Amino acid sequence: MNQNSQVHNELNMKKVLPIAVIVGGIIILIVFWSKMTVTIGAGQAGVMFNTFGKGIDLEEQPLGEGFHFIAPWNKVYIYSVRQKEKAEEMKMLSSNGLEIYIDVSAWFRPVQSKLPNLHKTIGKDYENQIVVPAVRAAARSVIGRYTPEEIYSSKRDAIQDEMYAETKKILDTKFVYLDRMLIRSIVLPQKLKDAIESKLKQEQLALEYEFKLARAKKEAERQRIAAEGEAAANKIINSSLTDNLLKMRGIEATIELSESQNSKTIIIGGGKDGLPLILNN
């Protein structure tokens, strides 16, 4: 009886053991599944950290979008590679030391192929550690070269371009791509703003006056040239009109009139200088 019971127990163990192994494997898989897989979403990329390797491999390409299996002891840091916008309101000093408030917007994104370098040297908070200081430094440098009048009016586009160039120069060395930079607003002290606007208005009026004066001069020149041309033409005509020529033209005109059907009376020699005299009935 005991021998049969022992054999029965051994048979049960042989049946249970594979089931236990399978169940144990499933439990282990469930526990470690989150550490063995990673899903990279749209507009994202992942940087692998090899715990038992050399950490961040700068030669390894970031993980792209989709589902990936990884060793459970490794870790993946996920970055957004979509374009971001950072707006900064700053108080600056112009070239003559006056305070100016400027609102700048920068559009940027990390360079995807250089994400391992970015993660190793700066980290995920690169926006606050690199982008914001670069924008502020470039803005202060550029604004300090111009007067308030230039900043407020004529040089705004040039200032914007210079800010972009200087900020990009910094970010290119930090594995961040700067797409565009915009000056959204510039605020000057009210008294200074009023003075600049008054000056611009006076300059505009002066330009309008100069334009009207130049137009009047051109019209006067045109009239002078026209008068000189007409005088020259009259001089040529007068010099060519001799008495004999006038008599000949008068005779020709008399002949043409005499041949018309209109009723008239022609007195030969009755006109000035012996020209025919024509009388309408």
In short:
This protein has seven helices and ten strands.
How would you describe this protein?
- The chain is elongated, with a radius of gyration of 48 Å.
- The strands form four sheets. It has a three-stranded antiparallel beta sheet. A three-stranded antiparallel beta sheet has the order 6-7-8, covered by helices on one side. Strands 1-4 form a two-stranded antiparallel ribbon.
- It has helices at residues 2-36, 115-121, 126-143, 148-154, 156-172, 190-240, 243-258, and strands at 37-40, 44-50, 55-56, 66-69, 75-80, 84-93, 99-110, 176-187, 264-267, 277-280.
- With 281 residues, the chain is an alpha+beta fold.
- It has four domains: 2-80, no CATH class; 84-188, Band 7 domain (Tetrahydropterin Synthase, Chain A, 2-Layer Sandwich), CATH 3.30.479; 202-240; 244-280, no CATH class.
Characteristics:
alpha+beta, three-stranded antiparallel beta sheet, 23% strand, Tetrahydropterin Synthase, Chain A, 4 domains, single chain, 7 helices, 10 strands, 281 residues
Question: How many helices?
Answer: 7
Shape: elongated
The CATH architecture assignment of the largest domain turns out to be 2-Layer Sandwich
The domain tally reads 4
Task: Give the distance, in angstroms, between the N- and C-terminal Cα atoms.
Answer: 170 Å
- Ranges where pLDDT stays below 50 over 5 or more residues in a row are none
